[in-house]
Amino acid sequence: MPDELAKAADQPSGLTSPIQYFSGVGPDRAAVLARLGIRRAADLVFHFPRSYEQPPQVVGVDDFEEKVPASFAGTVVELDERVTRSGKHMLGALVQADSGGSVRLVWFNQPFRRNELGTGRRLLATGTPRSTGLHWEMIQPQVRYLSPEECDLERKPRPVYPLTEGLRQSDMRRIMRRNLPELIPLVIEVLPDELRQRLEVSDIHRALHDLHFPENLAAAESAQRRFKVQELLVLQLAISLQRQQRSKEAVAPVCEATGKVHARILNRIGLTLTQDQLKAIADIASDMGRTIPMNRLLQGDVGSGKTVVAQYAMLLCVAHGNQAAFMVPTEVLAEQHSATLSRSLASSRVRIATLTGSLSRSQRQDVLQRLAEGEVDLIIGTQALLSADVRFARLGLVIVDEQHKFGVLQRAKLRVDGEQPHYLVLSATPIPRTIAMTEFGDLDVSIIREKPPGRSVVHSYSVDHDDLAAWWKFVDEKLAEGRQAMVITPRIQVDALPLNASSAATQALSSDSEWSGTREQLEASEDGLEPQSQMDESQMDETQVDETQVANAEGIYRFLSSGPLAAWQIGLLHGRLPSSEKVRILNAFAAGELDVLVATTVVEVGIDVPNASVMTILDADRLGLSQLHQLRGRVSRGVHPGYVLAAASVGATASDNARLAAFQKSNDGFELAELDLRIRGAGDLLGTSQSGMPPLKVADLSQDGELLSLARIVARELLEQDPELSRPELNRLRQQTLHRYGQKMQLSDIG
Ligand code: ADP
Ligand code: MG
Known about the structure:
Blueprint: H1 3-9, H2 26-34, H3 41-45, E1 51-53, E2 70-83, E3 89-97, E4 102-108, H4 113-116, E5 122-127, E6 129-131, E7 136-139, E8 142-146, E9 158-160, H5 169-183, H6 193-199, H7 204-212, H8 217-249, H9 259-269, H10 275-288, E10 295-300, H11 306-319, E11 323-327, H12 331-344, E12 352-355, H13 361-372, E13 378-381, E14 395-400, E15 422-427, H14 433-438, E16 444-448, E17 458-463, H15 468-480, E18 484-488, H16 504-510, H17 519-526, H18 542-562, E19 570-573, H19 579-590, E20 596-599, E21 612-617, H20 625-632, E22 642-647, H21 658-665, H22 669-686, H23 705-721, H24 731-741
Parallel strand pairs: 4-7, 10-15, 10-16, 11-13, 11-14, 12-13, 14-15, 17-22, 18-20, 18-21, 19-20, 21-22
Antiparallel strand pairs: 1-9, 2-3, 2-5, 3-4, 5-8, 6-7
Helix pairs in contact: 7-8, 8-23, 8-24, 9-11, 10-11, 16-18, 20-22, 21-22
């Protein structure tokens, strides 16, 4: 049935009509379009081009240069055809260029062109001009045929749409061309005039037109900008509404930092704090002094002194008779923090307890009871703190430490009735600005950039795997000077080559059944001792990966103990070891009983051994930039200068790797985080499964930082004037915000 009849039979009336009845579609194509999520007319209108094709620059023949590709428009004036001496078919066309002058086009073995060409035919030819002396010639040029009046039109960019099997770009363009002119006017504007002026964006009809049928790239970009801004504005409105609602509903215990309390806490901490630490403390004190629960993210590199700031918050909370919970990702860290805090609070009345998965049943019962009865002031624990049976007498503060992956800053839900605790997250992975404003947009942010005084410098290098031999000699020298060394082996892909020349052992181990599917493996993943590498998790199966990593660490351990570092005491740490064994090995390393620690990326989450000044990161190209930087932080803790070598995996070239190059060059975690975002893109960085937010469709957090800032400012302005967005002209914007984020962010309709 011709399109026109189809239309007459069932007149598509509006944006909600099924796509099937529109010009150039029909039932079969409708099924194909459905795979792209295009079911109704509106879906077609909002199926945006992915990019644009810019036709080559059309130039006048006068501007031709020998062997420089060019395009020109013209009309065929003469054709000739023959068979060459070598037996090839040759077709020539003399074309009168619009710009004046003529060009001869020549094709070999394309006899079909004879049917397309004819004198008077208009075309746009693209090819490499060569001068014959008489005139310019193009051999095997590409041509597009033009209608008689067409010439300028061809400079317009052509939209490139996302496609699916069974649908060509030209089909999609045709469907758009035939239907959108009628559909676009039906779309209702979301942004009122005033707001559009503030944002400097065009109205929705203009923008939709320019997006699908741009006159030039600038028009397309400006149309894209409108939809990006709109998307980001809706997001920022949702975030602001959520904060607004939260601060209205929940009530937290007021913990005021009076002069006396403040001085007492600082005195107990006993360090001269950096300006950034003091600023963070001021932020926290101001938050905790109110009934609105604090909701703050504290960012700073490893070793920048976040724990000290967290300690301030805990003591402030306890000083007011409330309990504080400090949640860390691993048992090892829980033990370490308990030990440090117990030491520094030994002479105080603060009662400390630890809750981890490895407590015996009776120990656990005891801790739970004391917590519930208010006989513990400060509890340090792993995720075990989140269990259903953990009750608090009067929880005032929750701190979540050392979350390394974006998107998993857990909104730790500890069980409390009545008053809500203040909440502080510590992140050692600097979070790029745009991500902080979106993914973690409901958190206030404090940043520690400045390192505590007396930090030693770290020298960073990156090399190919083959250049490791000289490095091991250097490590040996440093060990001889009394230093300690760490060797880190990240997860490697199962099908990757074994790491070392000596890796017969590695291979043997990886097929050893002893290492498959054990109970320890389960436990290791439960207590979170193996933070997943940011890159690898999506790519492969969990158990296999772990297996290879363990095997790999084992292989390196053997290689080093029987080879370049045979003279030294070497320890091996990986995720399959029982917790007690991990603690024992870490303690032995900290005590200097071990000279070298071979470890999986487990050490990332915190060991503090000032004498360890040399680190080797193997297969470093498989790690994210932030993770590499995190690891480096482990050797800048003491008075000795640190040395970190990031070695690319076998077959990879360090100098080709943008991440390794950046790692070697910069030691600023924030700068590296921004770079990582640009290199990997926001999707990769956040991962789809972790991220709590629906993904952005048009805007890109790795590029649209300025638009995001604008959207944030404007969202706040809007809510300041009209906290419920109840003005009629904002109705559609409010609807859109609730529709997109209402459920995800538990926004109740306000209007
Ligand atoms: P983070 O938690 O950010 O990794 P920590 O708080 O654990 O860092 O601090 C790292 C080390 O630096 C600790 O040994 C700590 O005692 C020390 N430190 C922290 N702040 C200061 C400071 N202002 N002056 C001197 N040493 C400090
Ligand atoms: Mg810390």
